Amino acid sequence: MPIKTAFPTDPADGELSWQDSALCAQTGPEFFFPEPGSSTREAKRLCGACDMRSVCLEYALTHDERFGVWGGLSEKERYELRRASR
After folding, report:
1. What is the per-residue pLDDT across 66-76, written as a single tens digit (0 to 9) for each?
2. Residue 23: its pLDDT value, please?
3. Residue 76 neighbours by CB under 8 Å, 6+ apart
């Protein structure tokens, strides 16, 4: 039996439909995919106010997103979260 997640897993069902309601959809990608060494503070601030934060983070962890801020966590923070959960 497949594991039920907070978002649909079939692309035909709109796997990324949660992004339509996310605050990041109202801004440019430069906040969430900053140049190396740039601050992620603004992205994390937006994520902190977003209702889709937990779904976004779950998506990033499930799909092993390696770049950018997802669900309020940077690449390094998501890596540490995955490592700690093993």
Report:
1. 999 999 999 99
2. 92
3. none
